[in-house]
Design a protein that fits this description.
Strand order of the largest sheet: 3-2-1-4-5-7-6
Structural class: alpha/beta
CATH architecture of the largest domain: 3-Layer(aba) Sandwich
Length: about 230
Amino acid sequence: MKAVDSASPLDLPGVLLGGIQALGLAVSEEQQQQLLAYMGLIQKWNKVYNLTALREPQEILTHHLLDSLSAVKPLLRHLSSLDSGLGGVDVLDVGSGGGLPGVVISICCPHVRVTCVDAVSKKAAFVQQVAASLRLANLKGVHARVESLTGPFDVICSRAFASLSDFVAWSAGALSEKGVWMAMKGKVPHEEMALLPPGIGVFHVEQLQVPNLAADRCMIWLKKSV
């Protein structure tokens, strides 16, 4: 039987599986189908809602899905250190847009409750549609400004949302007492880190390797100083 070229733009399931394996993730076949279905919904709704500037399936898969998947293992590692483990954990995805990385996290971490908040109503509505279409009981989209949310959330994440200072300032009221922020960035934002408000500190910086994407990616972990 002829081997399938995993780099072929037509073999999206193969590219996804290869990326999952490269990231060292345990993602079931059902979850992989949900991820591909989510990508299909992005393409469908993008025609009307302009969820992303990317149009080609291969680009959406690499720049959005695989990029978001790179956050799953670091998140699971952090959650495993909590007393509650994976159960009963609430994650808030700020400025979620079309649900990145929130939807991806909800698919890969079914025991984690994920709320995606966005100030644009149609984007929050899209996340709600994704939750209904893919039967993700642990996912919801909320149309609001993050400053209005009270939580409490154990992890507040963002992906290419705002400066670190704005991110933590706007969402501080929603963070639980022992909660953390998880900010996905490109290059390590040394200047942004230096401008963080008093009482907020970076406790970990890690490089992320996104399969098939030749670009700098990192994760900045922050918490309120004791």
